[in-house]
Structure formats: C-alpha cells, structure tokens
Amino acid sequence: MIIPKLTGKFQMQTSKQINILRNTPGRINWQPNYHDHIIRDDESYQRIKQYIIENPLQWNDDKFYHDPDN
C-alpha cells in the first residue's frame, strides 16, 4: 500500500504548487484514478512501451485537455 500513498502525496504537493503558480486555488490537476500494471513478459512490455510513446500524440483529443491559450 505504499505506492498509492506516495502517489497521493505527490499529487497533493504538486497540485498545491501548480495552483499557487496559476492562482487557481482548489483546482483539480490530476485525473481521479490511475491504472497500474505488472509487466510480466516481453510482449506486455512492448505493448505498454508503444502506448507510452504514442499516447501523448493524442493529447489534443483527450477529454481532459484544455488549451490554456483559448
């Protein structure tokens, strides 16, 4: 149970600093949940690696995306 606690603490501290810098008190900066997965074989590793490489290219289409300039 240490990883969820570390993740929660990291999210809390970074959100606090982000909101101070942006002057947006109380704004949620993280998606509510995360998905962890144990990589058990090379096939799983390759699939996850490809997802990590390709997923940021789709950020503009994500429902959580917000263009700060618009």
Draw up the topology in text.
Elements: H1 2-22, H2 42-54
What features would you describe in this structure?
The structure is a single chain. The chain is mainly α and 70 residues long. It has one domain. It is built from two helices and no strands. The chain has helices at 2-22, 42-54. The longest helix is centred in the N-terminal third of the chain and has 21 residues, at 2-22. It is flat and about 45 Å long. The mean pLDDT is 87.
What is the domain tally?
1
SSE run: HH
* Strand coverage percent: under 5%
Average pLDDT, all residues: 87
Query: What is the terminal-to-terminal distance?
Result: 40 Å
Radius of gyration: 16 Å
Biggest pleated-sheet summary: none
Q: Indicate the percent of residues in helices.
A: 40-55%
Shape call: flat
Number of helices: 2
Task: Give a quick summary of the entry.
With 70 residues, the protein is mainly α.
Q: Which features would summarize this protein structure in a list?
A:
single chain, 70 residues
